[in-house]
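Lab notes, practical 5.
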Amino acid sequence: MSKIVIPIDRPLKVGIAICTHASIPYVHLGLEALKRNEPETPVLIHDDSSTKQLELRLLAQSERYGASFVSTDFRKVPTIGDMSGFAEALRWGEDNALDVVVKCSRRFILNRAWSTGLAEIFQNYQYATVTGACAWYGFGFRSELVAMHVPSYIASGVYAQMKEAVRINQRVDPLPEAWYHRKAREVHRFVHPLDVNVSHSDNAHHPDCDFVVRHENSYPRSSSNDGYAHWPLMGLHRHQRVQGTVWHDSHAEGDYYLLAKEFGLPYELSDFHHIQGE
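Output from the prediction step:
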């Protein structure tokens, strides 16, 4: 029986990994927003072996940002570079004794305080994954912003599966969100066995940590969006504007530029023109 619980008797240690391929202006904007809104939250920059990795490293590890940096050893096939970001975020989280790591795409800018609210979702609902769905496209799982409970992903073996997929560098699914969703379900079943008789109810550390099992047995969730808790700051779909966030499906290039200008960063509108594959 799994002994993994998400503690409620102390603040959770939360970190965030910004995953990118080059795109320095977006990464710089994300770092600055985090510096202003979440100055105590540790940050990792993950680059998929771009020609800009030296500049990214210098930016990340600058005195102002003090972030960690890692790059793949070569450019991965489509979707595997992104998965490498998931795997490296979990490795970094384990190395730094973090409870939760957030995999964040470079164009998802979090210009608000968010870590305390995220920690409360994990503690209150006891899911090992927190993300959102997209009612616009019918996606049950979004991959641009995914928060993961590090001990659960490692103990369940899903972290090892991610590392192996990155090692063989072979695309795992035509739709990567579907693969990540399946892995989130695996972690959820590991942490919360579906047998109602398997319970941690006698665990003094968290007497109600398997209430979620009893609740889901009585009120089953749709298979289209099960296995994770919803993160309200992601809204209901990719095109919804949510206060304190900037995302390329809900905002224009000019919105990134205006925020950079507000922050005093040295970029022009053209710097936020996205090139497919970059």
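Observations recorded by the TA: The beta strands are 14-20, 43-47, 68-71, 100-105, 109-110, 129-131, 145-149, 229-230, 245-246. The radius of gyration is 18 Å.
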